[in-house]
Amino acid sequence: MPYAIETQNLTKYYGKARGIIDVTFQVEPGEMFGFIGPNGAGKSTTIRTLLSLIYPTSGTAKIFSLDCRRDAPEIAKRVGYLPGEVFYYDGMKVRDLLDYSASFYKKDCKDRIRELAGRMELDLNKKIDDLSFGNKKKVGIVQGLLHSPDLIILDEPTSGLDPLMQQIFFDLIEQENKRGATVFMSSHILGEVQRLCDRVAIIKDGRLVKLERIADLRQSSFKRFHIETARPLPADYFAVEGVRELEVNGLTHNFLFRGDINTVAAKLAGAELANFSAEEPDLEEIFLHYYTGEAQAQ
Amino acid sequence: MNVFKREIKAVARTSAIWICAVTGVSVLMMMFYPSFERDIADYVKLLENLPPAMRAIMGLQVQNFASAAGFYSFCLLYALLLGSIQAANLGFACVSKEVTMGTADFLLTKPVSRARILTSKLLASFSVIAAANIVYNLVTVPLVMSFTGGGSLKKVLLLNASLLFLQLIFFASGFAVSAAAKKIKSVLPYSLGLVFMAFALSAFAVTSREDKLRYLTPFQYFSAEYVMANGSYETRFAVLAAVLVCLGVAAAYLFFIRKQIRSR
Fold first, then answer.
1. With an 8 Å Cβ cutoff, are A87 and B105 in contact?
2. Reading across the β-sheet that carries A182-187, which strands appear in turn?
3. Position A286 pLDDT exceeds 70
């Protein structure tokens, strides 16, 4: 089976400004693939190149074995795209826009529009100009899914949606995935990618720095511990294998940990705790400690 | 067909207003003709005393004033000016509005080639220009003929056709620029700038009597003076006009197919 998406040394410069450099990855059909990185890392550039909105400086990108630039209209039949920011024609009603969108595909999308709009609680008779940002986003989602695409490309899909809608949206995407659709989604929130995706590519300063299974990432990823003890402990009490950036300040011990969680648990059991928290580091911390740290270690 | 329909809908209202304005200015000015005709000798004397540059800017060719068709050729100039602005607007906005509104992301990720999108837009714009000219002719030809009392229909039609050709030229220029430009925030300054520059050049070409200058401004390509005298266009300028329109349209395709649609 051919890859759903396949890029080879994809590079894009805007004049002299860096877009992306040598981005190579493959997305399996039926996979949910996350693409994360901080703002300006090159997520949108990659997506826009895949969609042939911009053209690569060098390298190739293929979707369903078709060339993204040459076969763009053919590819577009099978792709649904939800842009990060949604803008639509002045004075159009939601229904007009969705019908216009559907008119490009040679199939009847009426039932599907009704179903999707129902699930997203979207009023089809409102003017798009009058909708809130979140509701415009919903229009974008319905517009991207109404033709039952084989590949769904989402650029920062959940920004602007309230948590309840995010949940509905995730369910919807999962359902599409079960139907057989491949999902490619960019985000700067690790949590939402972790929750949905099978694999994740991490992009930073235009380069792909890591491509990993979410399960492995979770296992190998750091946790940040904040510990307050009732009685003073030796400063090196938590200095076990896997602990990094240990900071001791009186009764508080802060550190990053990666490894077998039982070693820390055993240490914790031997101490008298006043307070304790362990949290997932945010993306920024992963970049700062995990990846740059790893590069230094090698 | 869907893009064509969408495009027509998008420009329908403003185009209707423009068509009324372009036709209305000719009709209104023509209404002055009966009273003008009565005192024609006085008017001609008065106008001949105006400085030549002034006459050129106003588009007055005094020797033609005696006939209704001649007077009409003067009225037409203002219709040409407005019509050119309309067409330039249409051209400049054609592609750029999708980029500035952010709808390019929507349209260009649909299963249609860019060439087809542009063709739909081109045909929609041509339809608008065609409609404008049909309305204009239906209204002005009977009106002018009623004043001339028959005769010189060919000259009136030739005069009127210059509206169509000027609109095509200005549309094509705007169309090419709109496909090439990264972003045009507001269309009007561009179209007003282009048309008035051409108009000023035209006045300058008349006063300076410099024949070469006439190549630079479309307002000189279909000289009313020449039509009134010879009942035809000057071949070299008609050819030049056709070449410009083709070049503009071809350039638009070249630019649009290569265009990079960057996020806003």
1. yes
2. A79-82, A151-155, A182-187, A32-36, A199-204, A207-213
3. no
Closest alpha carbon to B260 in B187, B184, B181: B181
CB of B139 closer than 8 Å to CB of B20: no
- Of B24, B31, B8, the C-alpha closest to B120 is B8
∠ CA A197-A198-A201, nearest 5°, is 80
Cα atoms found within 13 Å of the Cα of residue A192, Cβ hemisphere only: 23
Of A73, A88, A104, the CB nearest to B103: A88
CB contact under 8 A, A48 and B263: yes
The residue of B110, B183, B264 whose CB has the most chain A CBs within 10 angstroms, and thus the best one to mutate to test that interface, is B110
First-residue to last-residue Cα distance in chain A:
36
Chain B 63-102, CB below 8 Å of chain A: which residues?
101-102
pTM, to two decimals: 0.86
3-state DSSP assignment of residue A229: strand
Answer whether A53 sits within 8 Å of B258, measured CB to CB.
no
- Chain B residue with minimal CA distance to A81? B109
Environment class of A49 (CB within 10 Å of its CB; exposed 0-12, middle 13-18, buried 19+): buried
Structure tokens at B262: 């960057």
**What CA–CA distance (Å, rounded) separates A218 from A257?**
12
Assign A93 to helix, strand or coil: strand
Cα–Cα distance, B235 to B237 (Å, whole number): 5
CB contact under 8 A, A105 and B261: no
Interface test with B, best of A48, A107, A152 (most B CBs within 10 A): A48
- Among A84, A87, A104, the residue with its CB nearest the CB of B111 is A104
- The string of pLDDT tens digits covering residues A20-73 is 999 999 999 999 999 988 888 899 999 999 999 999 999 999 999 999 999 999
